[in-house]
Amino acid sequence: MPAKAYSWAMQGLRPPSLASQLLQGSAFSTLQEQCAGEQISRAAGLTAQEGLEFPHLFNSQGSPLMSFAEQLTRLQVFLDADELHDEALDYVAAHGYLTALSICSESVPDREWIDALFAEEPHYADDTEREAIETTLLALKAHIARQLASDEEFELPCDLDLGEEPDDSDLRGWCIGFMEGVFLREAAWFETAEDEVSEMLLPIMVGSGLFDEQPEFEDIAKDANLMDDMIVQIPEALTALYLLCQAPDEKPAILKPRHH
């Protein structure tokens, strides 16, 4: 986990109100010029063709300045820079954060979630850079929403593996970013179908490591097979959460633990 982004988490801070909700009910019962651009396209879930076709930024004469894949490359460099606030989200965590915002039934104003993502105002070179970064964030959020609404399995910008050092893994960072998005509108996530939302959030909560000190999560963290079992369910859980929050009439089945 990048230390600059998650110092608060490493200090042992936990969101008790959410944790207490998720530890109730049936939650536990059912338990990266072209090469770089292509890499970031894949990281955002874009195919090579989509990276070319996605809307470009235009200059005042209407000529395209850069492709969406190139915009994402620039965004990643900006978000991963050490100059940002220690609690600002890096690129992978920001992807998780935007995914949660795209799922939440309550729309969060753009200004609010952008400010929260950075924790404090970044030192932009000028207004042009500010506009470019914020425009790309908005475009990425819109793309994520389209992915969630599609019939294809959602692709994360990282491997579904915490590795030997979970705190340093991209997946942990993505999951923490997602939970940051949940915390931004916590009440909205649980106002309806609380037990089902709690159940579907479990794989992401486990991946985040934010709740490992809770007894029930501690038990899961000690079981490597169960951890792996839950982690691989994240894409499925995201689709189920999207349907439940955005299309409640198409109520998804509760995720079941996979057995080896």
Q: Unreliable runs, pLDDT <50, ≥5 residues?
A: 1-17, 19-45, 47-56, 254-260
What is the overall number of helices?
A: 14
Query: How many beta-strand segments?
Result: 2
The top level CATH class name? Mainly Alpha
What is the CATH H-level superfamily? YgfB uncharacterised protein family PF03695
The dominant shape is globular
Let me know the average pLDDT. 80
Helical content, roughly? Answer: 55-70%
Write the H/E string, N to C. Answer: HHHHEEHHHHHHHHHH
Give a short account of the largest sheet. Answer: 2 strands, antiparallel
Hey, roughly how much beta strand do the residues contain?
under 5%
Q: Could you tell me the CATH topology label.
A: Four Helix Bundle (Hemerythrin (Met), subunit A)
Give the strand line-up of the largest sheet. Answer: 1-2
Provide the CATH architecture. Answer: Up-down Bundle
Instruction: Count up the domains.
Output: 1
Radius of gyration: 18 Å
Give the CA-CA distance, first to last residue: 29 Å
- The computed structural class is mainly alpha
Structure notes:
The protein is an all-alpha fold and about 260 residues long. The protein has a single domain, classed as YgfB uncharacterised protein family PF03695 (Four Helix Bundle (Hemerythrin (Met), subunit A), Up-down Bundle), CATH 1.20.120.740. The chain contains 14 helices and two strands; from the N terminus they run ααααββαααααααααα. It has helices at about 5-10, 15-20, 35-45, 50-55, 70-80, 90-105, 110-120, 125-150, 170-185, 185-190, 195-210, 215-220, 225-230, 235-245, and strands spanning about 55-60, 65. The protein has a two-stranded antiparallel sheet with strand order 1-2. The protein is globular.
